[in-house]
Amino acid sequence: MTGPLSGIRITDFTFAWAGPHATELLGFMGAEVIKVESMRRPDHSRRTSLTTGQVFTGMNQSGVFNDINLNKLGIRLDLTNPKAVELAKHLVSISDIATQNMRPGVMERLGLGYEALREVKPDLIYLSSSARGATGPERAYVGYAPSFASLGGLAYLSGYADGDPCQLSGEIDLISATTSAFALMAALAHRQRTGQGQHIDLSSSEAVSVLMGEALLDYTMNGHIPQRTGNRDAAMAPHGVYPCLGPDRWLSIAVSTEAEWQGLARAMGRPAWAAAPRFADAAARKQHEDELDRRLAEWTRGYPAHDLMARLQREGVPAAPSCDNQELYEDPHLRERGAWVEVQHPEMGRRVTIAPPWKLSATPAEVTMPAPTLGQHHDYVFGELLGLSREEVAEMEREGVMF
User: In 168-237, which ranges are E strands?
Assistant: First the structure.
């Protein structure tokens, strides 16, 4: 592996989305990530997807799993077996980082908690990611993305004023994962300066809460509980997503200055209503926002979204269409930026997936290999890294240690 984290090894006990995407991000930067699973407890995203509705015919054919576990090696260890636990400890002893997102207490009962692993690797960086963190009265809460968003408060604020809170899903897991990756990078920097490892106790719902600081401060300082406002802004008007020509076609428009409002009026051909006193300035437009949105929607629904985007942007008005997957894949700007990359998977064949989301000049992040098939890298991990003979590996496979 190459990249800024080349030489860093991660023993990865995570599953689902929030844990694996965190280690995938570090794998993009060159870390060697070794994913630990078993036939008894494979990563459940190998078998089904809660978001796409797919049920997969084989353990290695899940598009979701393969998109979120790129650049990783894979081994099988049945962690209910004491011999497997000892092998896991041996692997951690030659790693820099260990990660897990089990419910608090699970890894400790397996003998793989932070205190146990620090004995074999004193400067270990250990990430525990869970719904509400490993301490406090809610530590035992089981969680996945919708509950992270609900307990973190973001779901309550997301949605239309006359509707229910949004059931936010996979994107919340990815927010938790990105937070975990950032924390791991900070811990690596700390260890580089001090030689000290760290135990990172991450609450996925708190990773959501920190994104809504203005709402928390509004309540703390003013006693005000913010409510759902759809796509509207506290000050800007118009600020929303407007219907365009065709089924389910939409365009986002945000006007923050008087110059942008005049640009919008020019793009619309300066209709008489736009010059009315009730739309004369930002405060007036905000006061009459319902009518403003209605009139603007009457204009936008007669045009294709991309045509309106070009017209508005020429007039200096921020505007962008709401794109579906196909439009994103074909978008010339994303293609020029290298947003997509091809991966050759041993069972699924050629696949197109999302490339690393950042650009580094000297040490570029990159996708170097597909997600591992279940137990694909036994020879390298158990043979080269841990020094077991082929006969020893075969015997442990027969015993169910590497099941």
Answer: 198-203
CB atoms within 10 A of CB 384: 10
**CATH code (residue 285):** 3.30.1540.10
* CA atoms of 73 and 177, how far apart (whole Å): 19
Find the CATH number of the domain harbouring 197: 3.40.50.10540
What torsion do the CA atoms of 334, 335, 338, 343 make, to the nearest 10 degrees?
A: 120
Q: How many CB atoms lie within 10 A of CB 332?
A: 7
Tell how far CA 321 is from the center of its chain. 23
CA-CA-CA-CA torsion sign (149, 179, 88, 109):
negative
Supply 348's token pair.
């699924």
- Please tell me whether residues 84 and 173 are part of one structural domain: yes
* Token couple for 78: 């049945």
Task: Look at the block and give the residue holding tokens 């506290």.
Answer: 234
Indicate if 19 and 42 belong to the same structural domain.
yes
Is the pLDDT at 171 greater than 70? The verdict is yes
φ, ψ (nearest 5 deg) of residue 252: -90, 135
Closest CA to 368 of 21, 32, 10, 138: 32
Is the model's pTM score more than 0.85? yes
Distance linking the first and last C-alpha atoms of the chain: 27
Pairing verdict, β 340-345 and 349-354: antiparallel
Asked whether the beta carbons of 60 and 373 are under 8 A apart, the reply is yes
Quote the Cα angle for 169-171-174, to 5°: 120
Q: Containing domain of residue 381, as a range? A: 9-210+337-399
Judged by DSSP in three states, 248 sits in coil
Instruction: Tell me the CB-side half-sphere exposure of residue 90, using CA atoms within 13 A.
Output: 15
H or E segment to which residue 184 belongs: helix 170-194
Which residues does the annotation mark as catalytic?
Answer: 173
For 288-324, the pLDDT digits (tens) are: 999 999 999 999 999 999 999 999 999 999 999 999 9
pLDDT tier, 49 (very low <50, low <70, confident <90, very high otherwise): confident
